[in-house]
Amino acid sequence: MLLDLLHEKKVAHEEQKRQDNSSKDLFTSLLSVRDDDSSVMMSDEEIIDNIIVVMITGYDTTSVLLTFLVRLLANNDAICFDISREQEEISKSKALGEDLTWEDLTKMKYTWRVAFEMLRINPPVMLSAAMTQMDGSIFQNPTVFDPARLEKNTPSPPPFSLLAFGAGQRMCPGMELKLWKYLVLIHRLGLVDTVPSGSIVNKVEYF
């Protein structure tokens, strides 16, 4: 299937070049990669391998993040309430079943900070990230879950200290895809609240 799609993208890419159309997706971006002498740098097999990597890591890492988040919501009433309140404000402007827009996603600032704090403490890919993300000289009380440390009025962490997605030329190309999916899925899980016992109940609907 991917080979057939790659062939279609090659044909479309050649047509785009003739029409001087700069529109690109991941396939055509990889097809456009050239060496210094303008020769093709990636074989069909290498392009497909890169596509598969993006597909797998984009889903697996999101599921890891959501698993940790559900556990957090079940054990932290304050964060559960704040996320619920933010999502409820967005829902008030939407008709039942209406799709989220880019503007809606940009309003999920607290939910976004919770995601990054979760990734700081529990990076999906355990590389050397823990060496900086759990360093007390960089993050005060590093074992404490605190989304407030990522607010605008707080000092920004030094470069290359948050490495859940890598950095520089090796930064994960699916970083934004993963985070947007996380925001959408949190919203579609339904508004959540806590009852006195601390268990999570769903007030609207499951996706």
TrEMBL record:
Coiled coil: none annotated. The keyword Amino-acid biosynthesis does not apply. Pfam families: p450. Keywords: Heme, Iron, Membrane, Metal-binding, Monooxygenase, Oxidoreductase, Transmembrane, Transmembrane helix. It is a single-pass membrane protein. InterPro entries: Cyt_P450, Cyt_P450_CS, Cyt_P450_E_grp-I, Cyt_P450_sf. The keyword Membrane applies. PROSITE patterns: CYTOCHROME_P450 (PS00086). Its main location: membrane. Gene3D superfamilies: Cytochrome P450. It is found in: Membrane. Belongs to the cytochrome P450 family. This is Cytochrome P450 716B1-like protein.
